[in-house]
Amino acid sequence: MIAKKRLKVGVIRFPGSNCDFDTLHFFKKFGHKAEFIWYKDVSIPRYDLLVLPGGFAFGDRVYAKATGHYDIDPGVLAISSPVLKAIKRVVRLGVPILGICNGFQILVKAGLLPGKLVQNDSKKFFCDYVRCAVQGASFFGDPSMLGKTFIIPVAHGYGRYIASARLLNRLQKNKQIFLRYSTFNPNGSALNIAGVCNEQKTIFGMMPHPERSLDGKYFMRAIETYVAGN
């Protein structure tokens, strides 16, 4: 029996991240080496996987100068952080990246994933378990997950995925929509989209939290298989 590879995982931390330890412990639970990368870091060592966890980077708030007024715009401050330049260099090397919830918002805002994430239709924060179906390219390309449904926690206020009709058609054609809400759409996302990947299938973003899921072993297996094959 061949021992599985112990992954080296970098978890990006921003001020306001609140799922960073959940993500760190998720990988450690399965025997992998996971460590934090601070948002001010200007270079990133070699990792098998980078993860942008959930939370509220910089509070998701953009304050007007000299006033108490602010706008909610998840990811807009995070993308100006020094670590984002380092992440974009890593992208060119083909290192796989996973963005969860706020991490998904940041990847979209940075232009590393297509589309846009806006406020939920309800105008309220939603926190519960939802049933999601794995489709398209599957999670990290794992064929054993394709067509299966998983009950995964969600917790977000700005998770509604929108895009032009042309982009949505392209995403479907390229199988970039890898996760959809199957019985209940908690935010009003177009086409019930819960997760998309880039064209190269190296960057995955999803609103649900696999690191909190009781089915987390399936998501971990997909990541392990992907890394082992690349």
Report on the structure:
The protein is α/β, with parallel strands linked by helices and 230 residues long. The chain has five helices and 13 strands. A nine-stranded mixed β-sheet has the order 2-1-3-6-13-12-11-8-9, sandwiched between helices. A hairpin with a 5-residue loop joins β12 and β13.
Secondary-structure map with pairings?
Elements: E1 8-13, H1 20-29, E2 33-38, E3 49-52, E4 61-63, E5 70-72, H2 82-92, E6 97-100, H3 102-109, E7 116-118, E8 126-134, E9 149-156, E10 160-162, H4 165-173, E11 177-181, E12 193-197, E13 203-206, H5 216-228
Parallel strand pairs: 1-2, 1-3, 3-6, 6-13
Antiparallel strand pairs: 4-5, 7-10, 8-9, 8-11, 11-12, 12-13
Q: What is the overall silhouette? A: globular
Rg over CA atoms: 17 Å
- Average residue pLDDT: 95
Determine and state the CATH class. Alpha Beta
Q: Per CATH, which architecture?
A: 3-Layer(aba) Sandwich
Count all strands and give the number: 13
Order of helices and strands: EHEEEEHEHEEEEHEEEH
**Number of continuous helical runs:** 5
The biggest beta sheet is recorded as: 9 strands, mixed
The proportion of residues forming helix, as a percent range, comes to 10-25%
Strand content: 25-35%
State the separation between the terminal residues, measured CA to CA: 20 Å
CATH topology: Rossmann fold
CATH homologous superfamily heading: Class I glutamine amidotransferase (GATase) domain
* Domains, number: 1
Poorly predicted ranges: none
Q: Order of strands side by side in the largest beta sheet?
A: 2-1-3-6-13-12-11-8-9
Query: What class would the helix/strand composition place it in?
Result: alpha/beta
